[in-house]
Amino acid sequence: MSDPFDVQDVHVAAPDPRETPWRRIWRDYSASPLAVAVLAVLLAIIGLAVSAPWISPQNPYDLMQLDIMEGLLPPGSVAETTGYTYYLGTDDQGRDMLSAILHGLRISLWVGVVSALCAVAIGATLGLFAAYRGGRTESMIMRLVDLQLSFPTILVALMILAFLGKGVGNVILALIIVEWATYARTARGTALVEARREYIEAANCLGVPLHRIIFRHLLPNCMTPLIVIGTVQIARAITLEATLSFLGLGVPVTEPSLGLLISNGYQYMFSGQYWLSFYPGIALLVTIVAINLVGDRLRDVFNPKGQV
Amino acid sequence: MTDVELLDRSPATPTSADGALLSVRNLHTSFLHRHRWNPVLQDVSFEIARGETVAVVGESGSGKSVMAMSIMRLLPPKSSRIKGGVIFEGRDLLTLPDEEMRRIRGNRIAMIFQETSLNPVFTIGFHMIETLRRHRRMSEAEARAEALRLLERVRIPAAARRMDEYAHQFSGGMRQRVMIAIALACRPQLLIADEPTTALDVTIQAEILELVKELQAEEGMSVMFITHDMGVVAEISDRTVVMYHGRKVEEGPTARIIPAPDHAYTRKLLAAVPRLGEMSGTSLPVRFPDIDLATGVMTPARPAGRTVDPSEEPILKVENLVTRFDIRGGPLGGLTARVHAVENVSFDIRAGETLSLVGESGCGKSTTGRSIMRLVEPVSGKISMDGINMARLSRSGLRQMRRRVQMIFQDPVSSLNARMTVGEALMEPFLAHRLGDRRAAREKAETLLARVGLRPEMAGRFPHEFSGGQRQRISVARALMLDPKLIVADEAVSALDVSVKAQVVNLLLDLQESLRISFLFISHDMAVVERVSHRVAVMYLGEIVEIGPRTAIFGNPQHSYTRRLIDAVPIPDPARRQIKRTLSTAEICSPVYATDFVPPTRRYREVGYGHFVMQED
After folding, report:
1. CB contact at 8 A, B255 and B574
2. Domain coverage including residue A66
3. 3-state per-residue secondary structure call for B564-591
4. Which residue of B has its CA nearest to A211?
5. Which of A170, A175, A150, A282 is nearest to A234 (CA)?
6. How many structural domains comprise chain A?
7. Which residue among A198, B172, B180, B402 is least enclosed by CB atoms within 10 Å?
8. Is A304 part of the contact surface with chain B (CB cutoff 8 Å)?
9. Between B410, B417, B467, which is nearest A10 by CB?
10. Which residue(s) pair with B318 in the sheet?
């Protein structure tokens, strides 16, 4: 021991300074093999959705490519003209279901992710602002949140869409309006604790402007629950969009999402052409389950009490 | 560590003839962390005789609490490993079956902690009766009578009535008395007290220490008293074991160790403990002496230079400051009462001067500092900084003002944003006030890091990579980024270990000398206050009861509360152990008043030059 009493360089809570937070998160996440498998499935789904226009055998929106004579073929049928195999069958207009599902997945994920991101941006900002300011500002924002959350989500979304009309943009807007309140409440809950911590007071004393206190100090320290709830809410947004489309108020027929595909096939369910609804349904199910499981695992990883 | 002599290296054979009640032999404890066994205690041996009080002293991380947990076998068996011997009444506790060990815990060895562990939904009486019925197999009526007797033993006033009250209705000191009563319920042979007074105010601490001393004399039990405070050690113990980094570095009679410590670390610990009254020769602040742990050579403290010019106008003037908090209740949230946190407080500070605000928790000293920073809004009063009234400033005016007044907080962990590098944290205020571009900010940050004794390249690290003392230095550097004239230091060194505390105090004194910064030093620690201040204001229930030059307050205290406060500070002087104090049984007063309460007008009389005392009725 050269100088065992040097108190200058004692590292108290740093197990390994080189370990970045991201690396730690990955190490904890990958401790569960199931979670890694689910993440791989999710990444594959996202990959398929993003590259749909290039990998799908047919452009389901191009009516020139469709042959009405090949409508309602069961899975595994071979096209007479092109010799192409319809692995998942065709719909009533002769559209290849596999291509339709890949494109539908693309729209479903797009709607889910964009609406969740916008909702988190709006909700978190309002929630953090409410927690930091307190008093009347907080009461006003939080009563608005309470009001929003006391209506059934689907009802509000239906009303908005009935007013605005169909369309991908309108669905996203409707989802943002019904989802932001959840984020606002979560962000406020976390920020209430953080806003009373001394580093916020210190920033205040140092004359740091309000927007920096909220986005540079409060937000990074409240990210954890927002990431977790954000993941789960993407799944919720996708389900909600599917429900709306199934009810005929979601995306237009020209851009079918998974929900619309299920809805289109629904009328053929009882006449034996199960594949029209069944395969889009499976795609939706796998996507939702994968997102939820990843979200679940993230919650475990971020919650220190859940760790051994 | 050649200078450490281990007392007992004999193999662990149970013997009861040597008179030791507890004999710890070659104790090794390791914890499992990330699949590796890390040693926490290494080869610790000592003994406690019947009726003896042994103090175990050390800083955080020295393993003193782990030792108590090892003796009691309270560590999780899966992630901890204990080797060696713990011989208690002739039996090795480490090899006893779990069932036997459970009978020893609570019955033969009792333990009290820093935090009181009372279940909030049960009454105090229920806790005690439950313990007595389970451990001593008493009937309900017998147990009730015995519980009452025990509560009276620990001097709880109106014990018969208070037995049916709940934990939250008791103050911290009274709760600790209840814990002691519960610990005594089974007439233990050994009481292990793990920092039982650390969370308490000094006057309450003095009472609890007195109580432990009295009870020990009456019951003849042994006490193992774990603490970080050398003053407490001197006050309570027969013998002392000094721990450092999981090893015992020194052991011996307290009367020998305190005046003449052998080991350099003990000397360092003692040097960092200020002794009240040792500063009577000078009116200026004095740095802590530095001890080289390798050689044990002490560099005597250099007194601070003269930084105050009495002919100058004060830079900060606080006049008749009043801050109150509303207590709302009832179904409509109506105003039910008010906390008079700060009541009619006036003082001023000159350039280069340190004024300390002292008092116990709840006396309003922190609220005074926070009112000056406008972190809370004062009800009335004037706070002039360089002639500008801060209490009336607009938001933008306040931002400008904050360049001149800065604050350092108590908790070095939570006062830095964990998601920002130290460099970013330092540069932020500089950039927010547009004092220069990023390059200028970085240069200034690096200069200041070097100024507070850290390396400039540490700017890229995150706060969790630093120790508590280093983090507090970073907070100081951050406050200096705006070149303030006044720094409000709210318990800035209270959470630090003694040796680290000494370093940070010396840093503050260096800065005052070179930059002529003024400090409003808010602290409950009388001994540190005596070191750092030019002037001292004593606060009690929101009011200043006495204010004056430091030499006058400590040398000639006039107000009865000031005297009580100074008298309660534990001093590392074993001779003081014989002094008997009278145990106060009074509950603490509170500054909560009805809404129509009008505070009485106070009169101050001048006892000496600049020394004012509130007149007592």
Report:
1. yes
2. 31-306
3. HHHHHCCCCCHHHHHCCCCCCCCCCCCC
4. B432
5. A175
6. 1
7. B172
8. no
9. B467
10. B347, B383
Assess contact for B183 and B152: CB atoms under 8 A: no
* Tokens read off for B86: 């713990």
User: Least CB-CB distance to A199: which of B265, B416, B499?
Assistant: B416
Q: What is the mean pLDDT of residues B355-372?
A: 89
Window 45-64 of B, Cβ < 8 Å to A? 61
Calculated CA dihedral for residues A66, A68, A70, A74, nearest 10 degrees: 100
Rounded to two decimals, the pTM is: 0.79
Please tell me which of the candidates B33, B293, B420 has its beta carbon nearest to residue A5. Answer: B293
Q: Which residue segments constitute the domains of chain B, with CATH numbers given?
A: 21-271 (3.40.50.300), 316-404+482-614 (3.40.50.300)
Residue A153 has pLDDT above 90, yes or no: no
Interface test with chain B among A3, A7, A25, by most B beta carbons within 10 Å:
A7
Within 10 Å of residue B75's Cβ, how many Cβ atoms? 16
**Based on the number of CB atoms within 10 Å of its own CB, is B586 exposed (0-12), middle (13-18) or buried (19 or more)?**
exposed
A199/B465 CB distance under 8 A: no
Query: Does B392 or A124 have the greater pLDDT score?
Result: A124
Nearest Cβ partner for B429 among A4, A198, A206: A206
- Answer whether residue A286 is part of any domain: yes
Whether A195 maps to a domain, the answer reads: yes
**Alpha-carbon distance values, A191 to A206, A226, B164, B412 (Å):** 20, 11, 39, 20
Cα gap A19→A51, rounded to integer Å: 34
**Do the beta carbons of residue B225 and residue B236 sit within 8 Å?**
yes
Domain assignment present for residue A9? The answer is no
In a domain, A20, yes or no: no
Q: What is the pLDDT of residues B205-238, one digit of tens each?
A: 888 888 888 888 888 889 999 998 888 888 889 9
